[in-house]
Fold each of these.
Amino acid sequence: IGGNFTLNCAMRIAKKGYPLTIITPGINKDEIMNVVTRLGSYFDQIILSGYPPFIRDIIDDGGKQGIEWRKMKPKLFFASESLSEEFRSYLYDKVNINEDAYYFSSMNLYGTADAAIMGHETPLSTFIRKLFSKDRMRSRNFFGTDYVPSLNQYYPMFKHVEIDSGEVVFTSFNTEIPLIRYNIHDKGRVLKFKEMSGILDNFGYSEQETQNITGRPLWHLPYVCLYGRSDSTVTVYGLNVYPENIKSALETKELIDIATGKFVMETANRQNDQSQYLVVHVEVRHGVEITSDLEKMFQNMIIATLRKENLEYNHLYQSIKDRA
């Protein structure tokens, strides 16, 4: 749904007369490399659009195949999950996006299948995230977390956003079925533009200085900060992995006598290449010896169950194989 919606928006932009050509190869990597290799040199720049981990794969694999991203002046358009500034910097280094263009060379979209576009990053929100990323103590004091949440400016004329018991609740005026105080269980916080201006002051930057640094005007819009899902669902490569998926794996005949059924899951990024992976912490029954073979058995059963029960994951696995 999100991909089709974004495609439709891009097509409408093109129909207005902007010099935009759209190609939709999906997650077929061979087709993507073929398109970029054959057509990339004919355009002033290319925009890679997709889930953050998948865009990383395309950039890394393309470089190994001889694609010279630096010559194509790429811009990056993300959706479906948050990303760290370390991840953004990693990709910028790969495609030669320099510091002067840092704040307007990529954008992460906050959207839902329920209500389409909710908000998106702007140069100002990226600038503020980068400031907090360099000062984790200040970030912890302000956001109450050990990580910097995603920051998205939104349009109050289209979406009315509230926080109820720590969760984002929105009312949408521009959808086919009006959504009234709709809760998708994203944990978050709403901030007025003045509050973000106060953050700039605390870091020692005026609005004019910030505008000069980011190279773009400041949008006087409110912010919604996202901390993740409150129902323990995690996202891997932009797709949802539900607690029920893992629970089913632990209840298979191979594992039910070994695992207690208690587990915690999260996503993480490897330091060397920022590739994303799923981490599942599983509790085993008393007396069970933990070995590498046992860990491998758990891994295989979880993957097999995900492929069986989660169609999005199975499609991803067929595309990227062992990296899933």
Note: The chain has eleven helices and 13 strands.
Amino acid sequence: MKLIRCHIENFGVLSDFDFSFAEGLTTICQSNGFGKSTFAAFIKAMFYGFPRTGARNIVENERKRYDPWQGGKYGGYLEFEVQDVSYRVTRYFGKTAAKDTFSLLDLTNRRPSTRFSEKLGEELFQLDADSFARST
């Protein structure tokens, strides 16, 4: 699996942010407060969405923690490649999980894909979201 590029519409401190991943290992060297941890959380959210929780504490509730500071549409897309097929996962988040949207496009064949579901991360990596977070 290879990450290709992403666009963050709004996610925490990041707004209208585009990033292309280099071949091999990609490093991000930016100052404190730039949004490196937020960027990592965005990638996880693209693969797994947000966990359903009733927690009101911003530390325990990722949906609240990454709610855009500047308002606006909340989410973006991530393009990746698996077995020589490129995909674009797009997720936008609402105040509750019921208002979240998910789509997966097969960019190689230019059509919507049903190869993976909203449980994309579990299907690709055979890891739950917590295990993924601990491994990245």
Note: The chain is about 20% helix and 30% strand.
